[in-house]
Specification:
The chain has 26 helices and 14 strands. It is of the alpha/beta class. Helix 14 crosses helix 15 and helix 24 runs antiparallel to helix 25.
Length: 672
């Protein structure tokens, strides 16, 4: 279309020619929706040439397409996710609104300038008048998320793309609105690795506070549980698919460099009945993406990703209580701290490097009002890591699933059956237990009962040949800590009480891989009907359980715990819950919590004997030192008394020199 043809304006007044030019421009822009501006220029007459180059440069530096959808006349989904994440970062009180102070903090960090009071009022009037949606943009004098997005919608409509991109690039977004995660976020500092190398996988106090605030902010029903819709709302700011990192649709990509992938929480009624036949394979695969207990998750390897209807995704995600929510993150962090830090960064958490600030945030129990917090979130918590080792016939998978309340379907074994070439990885799951300890009162002589939460992260290894498989041996050595970085607190050795080879398998691991300082506990499954009395000191090894009991007695360990997955399953009723709690309590005490007021259990070989020998050596050293000091003092006193009787000062000095330098000491000194 030529806007400069002189014939097109022949016989027209200037106003008519201008109106026709405008009509042509509007027609051009309606025909090509991606056209944002039309500039009437001329290289021959040097008309607005510089402006053309300026607009072309701006089109490259500040692209329009990633920000705005011209077809629908609104911000693109990626743009909304980016600014929603920024909104959450500055919503300090977690009320879902951005106050003037919070907006001023954002403006200072994004544009390095403060906001004056009259600008707040002007912005509220503009977004209220120019609101493209029917959503509330200002509530109680604060900006809602819709109002925050409307601010940038106004900037885009005014062609001020430089303002929008300046804010986005300040927070690490590229031209395609992909978030860049710096290495300083995912990788620990050198000081942290040097000071506490085994603490690298644990969540920091600031991370715990962030996750706690996030849980209570999105608990829409205020009942202490996150529904499927609540969980999807939390992760809605992530790129498609906007799902939790442990979901099957995301896990293959998120955990592709890690040791395994997490199972998905299972909604009621979504578990499969059996893993075989016809469409059962798809059912089990879907169950893998949905099954999580009330207490933890399982990490496994999966090469196939089921197709899930995103429209009904909330119906496939089970509700999570606060402790279940934290258990997921503890387990993820134990598997891959880098992935966990990256996911939390995408949700808006930024770890401050200042140690002082970290300690202050650690004391702060979150910014949510106490009346909205659950009692569980107010409890002190810690986590321990348990390695589960045993032969394939020991039923260790069923035992861990029962302890963590997981579904009984061995999805990882089913995957290996479908694809024998599938690499087997360690599987991890978590369970929590509330424990109590006695604490002496500072004001009175009475003892108070302090309750805390313990998250047990179980890491189960698949079948391995310790003697012949070098890779598995090195992998286990890295977890058990042949290097200074010890990454587990307890080793659980599981054997079948009806299979002597199963016991020999774990004893071989114990002899080959474990040192005497590593806590351990033996657990027997499939109780033999000829079980003998474990309390007898003179046990005759007639059963596998007897052999294991004698072995524990020789090492001065607790006798093997005997249980079955059926006894711990939810179908066992109150008896199963009680036994499950008892076993978790036993494992926690074996892990050497070092908590004052918590009785520990024998879990290190010959620990009591070593303690007695160390105490005996200390007593002998103390006694020897005392005798030496006594002899020296007695000799000195005798010398002084003898010299004082003679009354000769010179002789007194000679005695002292003789005591210090021996015979001839005076002569030697004089010679020198």
């Amino acid at each position: 279309m030529d806007l400069f043809r002189t014939s097109s304006t022949a016989g027209m007044t200037d106003e008519q020619a201008l109106a026709r030019s405008r009509q042509q421009i509007v027609s051009l822009m309606q025909r090509f929706r991606f056209v944002r501006q039309c500039i009437k220029c001329s290289a021959k007459n040097l008309l607005r040439v510089d402006e053309v180059f300026l607009k072309a440069q701006q089109a490259v530096l500040y692209p329009f397409t990633p920000l705005y959808d011209l077809e629908n006349g609104r911000l693109t989904p990626d743009c909304k996710r980016a600014f929603t994440r920024i909104f959450r970062m500055y919503d300090a009180d977690k009320d879902g609104l951005l106050s003037d102070a919070e907006l001023d903090q954002f403006h200072r960090e994004a544009f390095s300038t403060p906001v004056i009071d009259r600008d707040f009022a002007a912005w509220k009037k503009v977004v209220t008048r120019s609101n493209p949606t029917q959503e509330v943009v200002v509530k109680d004098g604060k900006f809602t998320i819709a109002g925050f997005l409307a601010i940038f919608d106004v900037f885009i409509s005014q062609n001020r793309l430089d303002v929008v991109w300046q804010a986005l690039r300040k927070f690490g977004y590229d031209d395609d609105l992909r978030l860049y995660i710096p290495n300083s976020v995912t990788l620990p500092t050198a000081a942290a690795v040097h000071d506490k190398p085994d603490e690298n996988w644990r969540l920091t106090p600031a991370a715990r506070t962030f996750l706690t605030d996030l849980f209570h902010q999105f608990d829409s029903e205020h009942n202490g549980k996150l529904s499927g819709d609540d969980i999807l709302a939390i992760f809605s700011i992530l790129p498609e698919p906007s799902l939790p990192p442990w979901h099957t649709l995301r896990a293959p990509e998120v955990f592709k460099e890690c040791a395994g992938m997490p199972k998905i929480p299972a909604a009621p009624g979504s578990r499969p009945d059996s893993p075989g036949g016809g469409a059962a394979g798809e059912t089990v695969a879907l169950a893998m993406s949905q099954s999580l207990s009330a207490s933890g998750i399982t990490i496994l390897s999966s090469d196939s990703v089921p197709t899930v209807n995103m429209a009904n995704m909330n119906s496939t995600i089970a509700p999570l209580s606060y402790l279940e929510w934290m258990g997921l993150w503890h387990t993820m962090s134990s598997i891959s701290p880098v992935v966990t830090r990256g996911e939390m960064y995408r949700l808006g958490h930024v770890e401050k490097p200042s140690t002082r600030d970290a300690k202050r945030r650690g004391r702060r129990r979150g910014s949510v009002a106490p009346i909205e917090r659950t009692s569980d979130s107010m409890l002190r918590s810690r986590e321990i890591r348990v390695l589960v080792l045993g032969s394939p016939t020991s039923c260790k998978t069923d035992l861990v699933n029962a302890l963590c309340g997981l579904d009984g379907v061995d999805a990882s074994a089913y995957l290996r059956m479908r694809n024998p070439k599938t690499t087997t990885y360690p599987e991890s799951s978590s369970a929590f237990i509330k424990m109590k300890r006695k604490v002496a009162s500072k004001s009175t002589k009475d003892e108070n009962i302090d309750e805390f939460v313990l998250h047990l992260v179980f890491t189960e290894f698949s079948q391995m040949d310790i003697e012949n498989n070098v890779d598995h041996k090195r992998e286990l050595a890295e977890h058990l800590g042949e290097t200074p970085n010890r990454l587990c607190d307890l080793v659980m050795l599981v054997f079948d009480t009806a299979d002597e080879m199963s016991l020999a398998y774990v004893r071989n691991i114990e002899t080959t891989m474990l040192d005497e300082d590593m806590p351990r506990v033996f657990v027997g499954t499939h109780v033999d009907s000829n079980e003998s009395n474990n309390d007898d000191d003179n046990i005759q090894p007639t059963t596998v359980l007897d052999i294991a009991t004698i072995h524990c007695q020789e090492l001065d360990l607790e006798p093997p715990m005997v249980t079955t997955s059926e006894a711990l399953s939810p179908d066992a009723g109150d008896a199963g819950k009680l036994q499950r709690k008892s076993m978790l309590d036993h494992l926690s005490r074996c892990a050497r919590l070092n908590e004052a007021g918590v009785d520990e259990i024998r879990s290190k070989p010959h620990e009591e004997m070593k303690r007695q020998e160390a105490a005996k050596r200390r007593r002998m050293l103390w006694l020897g030192g005392l005798v030496s000091v006594t002899v020296v003092v007695a000799a000195g006193v005798g010398l002084l008394l003898r010299a004082s009787r003679s009354g000769d000062r010179k002789e007194r000095l000679n005695w002292i020199k003789a005591f210090l330098f021996g015979k001839g000491g005076e002569a030697k000194v004089a010679t020198k």
